[in-house]
């Protein structure tokens, strides 16, 4: 799956040559006619290529579809319809040493090294502002997109990236542990604080299992609950971009709340600062030692994460004064405006993002589709989260129309809080970010 991007993008991967090997083997084993003639013919058939830079390898195209990722299935359909090959150029930490996936993607895009890129929110925003990404609103598939996708990935009036799924974050809770102490699932910050108090008093050492990546969701849910629920979102974002409204005023309630959770012992800041997502806090949650963690939608489907637990799992939104609030972080595929094979690349993306292929992708991975025409069933645990999203109740963790990038910056400043910085010191960092964006 492509859901947990930030974790996957920085993990060691191997460059797969399986696709090339299969093509070569097929050419050498064709029956009848001159061997050299067959080889030349096959080479001609694969000359037309589109280059994709991403974190994932390409699986053997002759493998059973059940063993292939949903993305590979949609790519295979595009290859067949267009008579071309999508070559995967894969990021590996081994090749790029200390450079992150985002840093490498920026460098490759700025040097026009690939045609199609899988991008994180902050990278989408940077390349969009540099006008290096093509406007994808011209694609036929773009007409079917949910408004949330357009809002999140529009830069300077151009739709510069489109995902294959909407990544939604929520609180994963052990409903059995809540029932044991006669607790309702929390909707507001105060209700969550009270639940944590009861758990702590009953011997649960750390009520909220946390990692160094996703505590920002607590901040986002409280910071922007009104902004994304109101009628003046565009005007309010413009006020933030112009400096008329201070970013710190949005961020402060969430940071003050996290500080309270840490000071009360409901979050272990030292562990959270070193824990990787799911790998750190996951074992205690699965063992029912802690009742609450935070994760993305797909973690509820994956058996390696929380898709196979021995209790009643429920996934709800993060606490806000408006109640449970899902947080959406938007990744996406972007096409270089100066791509060497611009038309072919757009054609590939248009097929991958068609309702037909998005239905295949969504049904395979059981995720929320970016198309308003594609609805798939989800497991019972995710229904509370899905209902909120369908009602339009959510906040965006990434919004390319904001000058100050949100997802990465808030995450980094939350980590400063975990290391011991005061709330006021964290607010000064937001002041600096906003000042720099105005400069």
List the defining traits of the structure above:
11 strands, disordered N terminus, five-stranded mixed sheet, four-stranded mixed sheet, 439 residues, 20 helices, 44% helix, globular, alpha/beta
How would you sum up this structure, described in words?
- By secondary structure, the protein is an alpha/beta fold.
- It has helices at residues 5-9, 18-28, 35-45, 70-82, 93-96, 101-110, 121-129, 147-152, 175-180, 189-201, 216-223, 233-242, 247-263, 269-274, 282-286, 342-352, 355-365, 383-390, 407-418, 423-438; strands spanning 49-54, 85-90, 116-119, 154-155, 158-159, 167-174, 292-296, 313-316, 327-329, 332-335, 395-396.
- Strands 6, 7, 8, 9 and 11 form a five-stranded mixed β-sheet that branches.
- α13 packs antiparallel against α20.
- The protein starts with a helix and ends with a helix.
- Residues 1-46 and 61-67 have low confidence and may be disordered.
């Amino acid at each position: 799956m492509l859901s947990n991007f930030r974790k996957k993008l920085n993990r060691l991967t191997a460059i797969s040559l399986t696709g090339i090997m299969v093509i070569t083997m097929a050419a050498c084993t064709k029956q009848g006619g001159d061997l050299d003639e067959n080889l030349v013919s096959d080479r001609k058939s694969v000359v037309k290529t589109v280059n994709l830079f991403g974190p994932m390898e390409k699986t053997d195209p002759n493998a059973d579809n059940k063993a292939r990722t949903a993305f590979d299935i949609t790519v295979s359909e595009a290859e067949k319809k267009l008579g071309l090959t999508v070559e995967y150029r894969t990021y590996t930490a081994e090749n790029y040493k200390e450079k992150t996936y985002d840093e490498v993607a920026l460098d490759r895009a700025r040097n026009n090294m690939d045609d199609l890129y899988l991008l994180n929110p902050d990278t989408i925003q940077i390349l969009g502002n540099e006008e290096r990404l093509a406007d994808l609103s011209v694609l036929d598939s773009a007409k079917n997109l949910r408004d949330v996708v357009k809002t999140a990935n529009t830069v300077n009036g151009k739709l510069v990236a489109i995902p294959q799924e909407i990544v939604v974050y929520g609180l994963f809770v052990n409903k059995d542990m809540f029932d044991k102490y006669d607790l309702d699932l929390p909707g507001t910050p105060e209700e969550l604080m009270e639940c944590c108090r009861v758990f702590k008093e009953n011997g649960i050492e750390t009520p909220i299992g946390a990692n160094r990546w996703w505590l920002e969701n607590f901040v986002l849910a409280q910071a922007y609950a009104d902004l994304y629920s109101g009628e003046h979102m565009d005007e309010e974002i413009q006020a933030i971009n112009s400096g008329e409204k201070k970013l710190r005023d949005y961020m402060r309630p969430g940071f003050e709340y996290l500080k309270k959770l840490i000071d009360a012992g409901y979050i272990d800041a030292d562990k959270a600062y070193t824990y990787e997502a799911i790998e750190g806090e996951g074992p205690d949650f699965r063992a029912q030692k802690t009742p609450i963690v935070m994760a993305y939608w797909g973690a509820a489907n994956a058996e390696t994460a929380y898709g196979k637990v021995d209790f009643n799992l429920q996934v709800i939104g993060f606490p806000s004064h408006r109640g449970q609030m899902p947080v959406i972080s938007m990744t996406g595929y972007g096409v270089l405006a100066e791509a060497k094979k611009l038309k072919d690349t757009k054609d590939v993306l248009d097929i991958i993002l068609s309702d037909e292929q998005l239905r295949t992708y969504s049904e395979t991975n059981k995720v929320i589709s970016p198309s308003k025409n594609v609805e798939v069933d989800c497991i019972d645990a995710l229904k509370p989260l899905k209902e909120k999203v369908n009602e339009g109740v959510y906040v965006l963790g990434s919004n390319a129309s904001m000058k100050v990038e949100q997802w990465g910056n808030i995450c980094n400043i939350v980590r400063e809080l975990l290391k011991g910085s005061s709330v006021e010191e964290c607010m000064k960092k937001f002041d600096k970010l906003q000042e720099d964006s105005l400069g």
